[in-house]
Write a structure and sequence with these properties.
Elements (H helix, E strand, L loop, with lengths): L6 H19 L2 E5 L2 E4 L3 E5 L4 H12 L3 E4 L7 E5 L4 E4 L3 H9 L12
Parallel strand pairs: 4-6
Antiparallel strand pairs: 1-2, 3-5, 5-6
Amino acid sequence: MALLAPASSRRRAAVRADILASLVELRLINIGFGNFVSASRVIAIISPESAPIKRIIQDARDSSRLVDATYGRRTRAVILTDTQNVILSAIQPETVAARFHSKEVPESGNQDD
């Protein structure tokens, strides 16, 4: 007859396994200049030229939900998240999307950052 661990320690082990599984599934996308965003939080990657997107950016700025990751450069991509945050990036939306779909993590010495 095998001895079983108490139910509380089995629950703790299951919770630890769930936490580790979620950490393993965490994918970070490089949005330029050493800044990363969680892939699971991204809803859309869009260009900032249209008037509705400019309003979204201004509304986010007014309500302190804007994250400016451009380092003073021109905004080329706007990233919308499920937490209602708006992230500005200085790299092209196509580049961010390609990194989003890439399976490997790029090295830190990226040319367009």
